[in-house]
Write a structure and sequence with these properties.
The protein has one domain. It has ten helices and no strands.
C-alpha cells in the first residue's frame, strides 16, 4: 500500500505546463504580435501608426498599451485550456470511463477483486489509480485479523479519500489561472477604457473650446476597443473554465461512485 501511495504522490507532479514561464512567454508573444503585426505601418494611411487604420489590425492597434495584455489573456485561456483538456482526457484512462466504472462495480459486487485490479491496470489514468488503491486496500483488509469490521471500513474509506486527495491537484492544476482571467479580464479592459476616455476628455478641453474631433474619436475608439477585448477574453475564459470544472466534477463523481461500491461490497462480503 505504501508503494502505491508513493506512485500516486509522484503522479500529481507529472504533466501540466509551468505556469510562470508559460505566462511570461505568452505575454512576450502577444507583445510581438501587437507591435510587429498589428503595429505594421502597412495597416495605416500615410505609412505611420499615427495615420488612419486601413484594416481591423490597425483598429485594434489603436486600442493602446492595454491591448497586448488582453491579447495575452486570450492566449493563456487557449493554451491552459487545451493543456487541461488533454490532462483530463489522460486522467480518464485508456478505455471508456463509464464502461470501466460499470465493469468495476460488477466485479466488486461479485467479490472478484483480482479481476478488478487487472481492469485498473488496463484503464490507468487518475480514475484507475484511485480505484486500484482502494481495491489493493480492500484485498489487504480482507486478510487482516487485527481489526474489526467497522475499523476496516474506516480504513478503506480513509484510503480512498487520501488517494482522491493526491490526484486532485494534478486534475486542477492551472485552472485557477483561467478562473482569474475570467474575473479580471473586464477589470483590465476597464483600465484601458478609462485611459481612452481620459484622452477623449483632454481632446474636448483643447483648442479654446473647439474640440479636436480627430483626438476625440481616437480616445473614444481606444475606450471601446479595450472594452470589447476585455469582455471577449472574460467570456471565453468563463466558457473554458466551466468546461474544465464540469469534466473534473464528472471524474470525481465516477470515482465516488466506484468508491461507494467498493465499501458496500466489503461490508457485505466481510
Amino acid at each position: 500500500m505504501e508503494t502505491n501511495e508513493i506512485v500516486l504522490r509522484k503522479s500529481t507532479k507529472k504533466g501540466g505546463l509551468n505556469a510562470p514561464v508559460t505566462i511570461v512567454i505568452l505575454i512576450l508573444i502577444a507583445l510581438g504580435i501587437f507591435y510587429g503585426l498589428f503595429g505594421s505601418t502597412d495597416n495605416f494611411d500615410g505609412g505611420t501608426t499615427d495615420g488612419h487604420p486601413r484594416n481591423f489590425m490597425g483598429i485594434i492597434y489603436k486600442g493602446g498599451v492595454i491591448i497586448p495584455f488582453l491579447m495575452s489573456f486570450f492566449l493563456m485561456v487557449i493554451v491552459f485550456g487545451i493543456d487541461r483538456l488533454f490532462a483530463l482526457v489522460k486522467a480518464s484512462g485508456k478505455g471508456n470511463l463509464t464502461k470501466f466504472v460499470d465493469n468495476i462495480r460488477d466485479l466488486v459486487s461479485r467479490n472478484q477483486i483480482n479481476e478488478a485490479l487487472e481492469l485498473c491496470d488496463q484503464q490507468q489514468g487518475s480514475v484507475g489509480n484511485v480505484v486500484k488503491e482502494g481495491l489493493t486496500t480492500y484485498k489487504a483488509l480482507s486478510n487482516d485479523t487485527s481489526m474489526n469490521k467497522e475499523q476496516k471500513l474506516i480504513e478503506l474509506n480513509k484510503t480512498l479519500e487520501e488517494a482522491m486527495t493526491l490526484e486532485m491537484p494534478a486534475l486542477e492544476k492551472n485552472t485557477a489561472i483561467i478562473s482569474t482571467i475570467a474575473s479580471i479580464g473586464t477589470l483590465i479592459a476597464l483600465m484601458g477604457t478609462v485611459i481612452g476616455m481620459i484622452k477623449a476628455f483632454f481632446a474636448l478641453g483643447e483648442g479654446g473650446g473647439t474640440p479636436d474631433a480627430a483626438k476625440l474619436s481616437v480616445g473614444i475608439a481606444e475606450a471601446l476597443i479595450n472594452t470589447g477585448m476585455g469582455i471577449g477574453a472574460s467570456a471565453i475564459a468563463i466558457v473554458v473554465y466551466n468546461m474544465i470544472t464540469n469534466k473534473i466534477d464528472d471524474l470525481t463523481f465516477k470515482i465516488d461512485e466506484v468508491g461507494m461500491s467498493i465499501q458496500q461490497s466489503f461490508a457485505s462480503h466481510h
